[in-house]
Amino acid sequence: MILFALPLKLSYDWARLFQALAPIGLPGASASKRLLLIGSPGRRGGGDASYKRRRQEAELRSPARTGGVVALRSEAEGSGGEAGLCPSLTMSGGLEIMEAQRLWEPDSKRNTSMDRFRAAVTAAYGIRLANYSELYQWSVQHYSDFWAEFWKFSGIAYSRLYDEVIDPSKGITDVPEWFKGSRLNYAENLLKHEENDKIALYAAREGKEEIEKVTFDDLRHQVAFYAAAMRKLGVQPGDRVVGYLPNSIHAVEAMLAAASIGAIWSATSPDFGINGVLDRFSQIQPKLIFSVEAVVYNGKRHNHLDKLQRVVKGLPDLKKVVVIPYVSSRESIDISRIPNSVFLEDFLGMGQGDQAPQLEFEQLPFSHPLFIMYSSGTTGAPKCMVHSAGGTLIQHLKEHILHGNMSSNDVIIYYTTTGWMMWNWLVSALAVGASVVLYDGSPLVPSPNVLWDLVDRVGITILGTGAKWLAVLEEKNLKPRETHNLQTLHTILSTGSPLKSQSYEYVYQHIKSSVLLGSISGGTDIISCFMGHNVTIPVYKGEIQARNLAMAVEAWNEQGEPVWGENGELVCTKPIPCQPTHFWNDENRSKYRKAYFSRFPGVWAHGDYCKINPQTGGIIMLGRSDGTLNPSGVRFGSSEIYNIVEAFEEVSDSLCVPQYNKDGEERVVLFLKMATNHEFSPDLVKRIREAIRVALSARHVPSIILETEGIPYTISGKKVEVAVKQIIAGKEVAKRDIFSNPETLNLYSNIPELQGF
């Protein structure tokens, strides 16, 4: 067998590469052969080796640990050796190596929190960790030690130290208890910043020129008033307090007050319909609800009291309904039709005595419930995920401090609603002393520059948004680097859906060339990220930078084996403190097990489809696995199609779904929403088919390409494929309140071209 080492480069002249292989007699030089990266798991070989041994060896032989050099061998020579990490990589010419275009480099002279933490681990354990890759491998292999070390490094405020980090005999399916014996409070950690006069919150909203400001001292005082009133009402640890609220200062104050007591906070945004709210809140029986009389969005006032009244009727356990005058003055608002309602000012007065109330923080176990979050509810009643105070806090601190290098000098905004987990993630930035910017309204009104205007006005350093917003700006040909200063901005974050390759180019060409563009991915299920931004490693076009510390993430094929450079199911193989402690109303954990542990025994299957680049360690997200396409046995994610199709200037948006006939055969249907001043045409269809065939393969080409006037999205900005798949199969979609544009669902019923398959 002939072995040789080949440095992985950013691009290859394939013909010259094969010419170079031929003289040394490597069997892979033939176009009919293929080369395997040594140790291809799940491909020939592996023999009788157990999965556990294969996975352990895979972790140790990660390409990220080999300095970017891989050994190749020919499949023709057999591969009966030990299974490693990297899968076979193929192309039509006989060889595929995932290319990577570097767009951003970290400053080698910068001493980041990640560097300091790595040095602390090195000193504490007497080991050598030369780079992020080695730190990552250590963190997943020794996750208990990692979390113990980060507890110290993060400066978490606590009243009692833990007895043990985790029971080492427990796996992720056991949902083990973390930091047993410790006592702390989430709100205390967010309000501990010592600079009283530093701005904690900025609040901007559509239709108002003024930006509200709240210092850390003001925030503590306000939270004390909220908490005192809650206690007067009888709110105790474990009670549910909910918000039907916009992204506002009031929402942050109410949440922190509930957390200070040990009550559980849950929220939906005002754009949720009545049924959508009741589907969620009725399951958890809240004692107290906060809401507003109206909101402004997209240039229009939307009255809210009628919806609130009907929601309250469906929540019989409510003791009080607190109405916050948000758009109008109190004098012009009539709340008499809402039972047990009170204006915010009067509610806060309930907690006042002769002196201003003192802020008290209930000391609670690490695993005490903090938030209840919800699944989308597209296929049934939303699942109610209970997240712990300690797990949420320490995970968010890890992402903010280590991965983002965030400090008290930062000013962060994330365009989000209170019902999306990114709101919780954003507010946790207070724990590092950062200033948080809240924005309520359309990001495109009064102009598409509204968020860039805020960057310059407030001095924002970190801006987060959904991937779709960046695509819209590109479509509108917006060039913020020409119209704005953006001097303070050092990081742009994107999530909600896969960030397209062309969006990377757009950011670096037309927004700011020196910014770290971090695509981050996780979910409501873990209220955080499995993978994301990292200030110590490069950014590559189209890729999430890396798997996050202590998140044992892999891509698995259908046989339950890790694959690299190939499409696979995103799994997490080891316990994490941010997994839900339980689902509400799921006493035997049957819903919990079905949600995460039914796909592969013993590991968490997240429901996402991805590919991990063996060259860079970066991750390419391919969409939800429940929307995976599999025509003629070729399994791929819808995002692979979107990345190609939406690069066409004629296409504004697209949706790719499978359709099945009565025999179970599958074909792919692609819907195109046309850009302004462009028409759907046979020529466009032909060019799109050819582009997909060339970039992917003939089997990836959709069977049918149709025009549509609208693409359905959830309220949190995620493209909805499953609902459309149901509709074209003749099924009803009952839960329409979760969609931001439910009227678009009607566009997919009874389409003539889809009949008779």
TrEMBL record:
Subcellular location(s) per record: Cytoplasm, Cytosol
Disordered, as annotated region: 43-65
Known catalytic reactions: acetoacetate + ATP + CoA = acetoacetyl-CoA + AMP + diphosphate
Domain of life the protein comes from: Eukaryota
Every Acetyl-coenzyme A synthetase N-terminal domain range: 132-189
Domain named AMP-dependent synthetase/ligase: residues: 195-575
Keywords: ATP-binding, Cytoplasm, Fatty acid metabolism, Ligase, Lipid metabolism, Nucleotide-binding
UniProt-listed Enzyme Commission number(s): 6.2.1.16
Pfam family membership, one: ACAS_N
GO molecular function, one term: acetoacetate-CoA ligase activity
A cellular-component GO term for this protein: cytosol
GO biological process: fatty acid metabolic process; positive regulation of insulin secretion
Family: Belongs to the ATP-dependent AMP-binding enzyme family.
Role description: Converts acetoacetate to acetoacetyl-CoA in the cytosol.
Stored NCBIfam families: ac_ac_CoA_syn (TIGR01217), PRK03584.1 (NF002937)
Protein's recorded name: Acetoacetyl-CoA synthetase
Lineage: Eukaryota, Metazoa, Chordata, Craniata, Vertebrata
